[in-house]
Amino acid sequence: MHLEGSCHCGKVRFRCEAYAPVPFQYCYCSICRKTAGGSGSAINLGARADTLEVEGRGHLGVYQARIRDDGGGCRVSSGHRHFCTGCGSALWLFDPEWPGLVHPHASAIDTPLPPAPERVHMLLDSKPDWVVVPDGPDETRLDGFPDESLEDWHRRHGLLDG
């Protein structure tokens, strides 16, 4: 699916081809919550990195999160979180460990996205108490990461493009 996205102020616009375009996976980790804002979650889509085209690259910032461990240590994430330096909009994540992929934030996409037949709420062990997570037959709730990838979820639902 062809996706077009932008930041809030319009200084950055991008487009890419998504193989996994259905926004179903809500992440409540502190990195996603604090860098993408919203109701305590961020939703990443799956796209092919070689199709990413960007206008306004001069307005891009990149953040690599610091991840603390239980022993008090800290490491820098390999994920590069791209955002607009003009308005702060979170746009996409690229991780050189998976150079063929880019993960646009659903919140930055201007193209209408298909509704998800079910939603996965992950890393709920990081969720603040004030965030209410839906509960029901089409809502999967996980304290950690799911075993199923974005690609596998789309394949299971017959939604995989390509």
Automatic annotation (TrEMBL):
PROSITE patterns: CENP_V_GFA (PS51891). InterPro entries: CENP-V/GFA, Mss4-like_sf. One of its GO terms (molecular function) is metal ion binding. It holds the Pfam family GFA. Keywords: Lyase, Metal-binding, Zinc. Belongs to the Gfa family. This is GFA family protein. It comes from Luteimonas granuli.
